[in-house]
Amino acid sequence: MSDASNNPFAFFQQFFKPMEGMQPFMPPLTEEECARKIAELRTVEQWLGMQVSMLQMSIRTLELQQASLAALKPREKPSSDSGS
To answer: Is 50 helix (H, G, I), strand (E, B) or coil?
Structure first.
């Protein structure tokens, strides 16, 4: 008990003790697991690319709609009624 009271990080050390033998950020993978993970990440990459393309298309569509509305808006005529 004196160890825990003297060491403020004792709780965290006890919490992480089961992970001492593991690599810090990447668990060991077999060749098959690596291939599967690469395939999954490529699928996610393709999906994200499709989503970006759809977002860009939506932005372009809205820009065209905005330009069309601006072109169709009636222009104000300069007032020529002042002081003739």
So the answer is: helix
pTM over 0.70, yes/no = no
| Spacing of C-alpha 58 from chain mean position | 18
- C-beta of residue 3 within 8 angstroms of C-beta of residue 10: yes
- List all residues 6 or more positions away from 11 whose beta carbon is below 8 Å from its beta carbon: 4
Structure tokens at 1: 């008990």
Structure tokens at 83: 């002081």
The mean pLDDT value for 47-66 works out to 97
Residue 25 confidence (pLDDT): 66
In angstroms, how far is CA 84 from the centroid of its own chain? 63
Q: Report how far residue 81's alpha carbon sits from residue 75's, in angstroms, rounded to the nearest whole number.
A: 17
Dihedral sign computed on CA atoms, order 17, 20, 21, 24: positive
Q: How many residues does the chain have?
A: 84
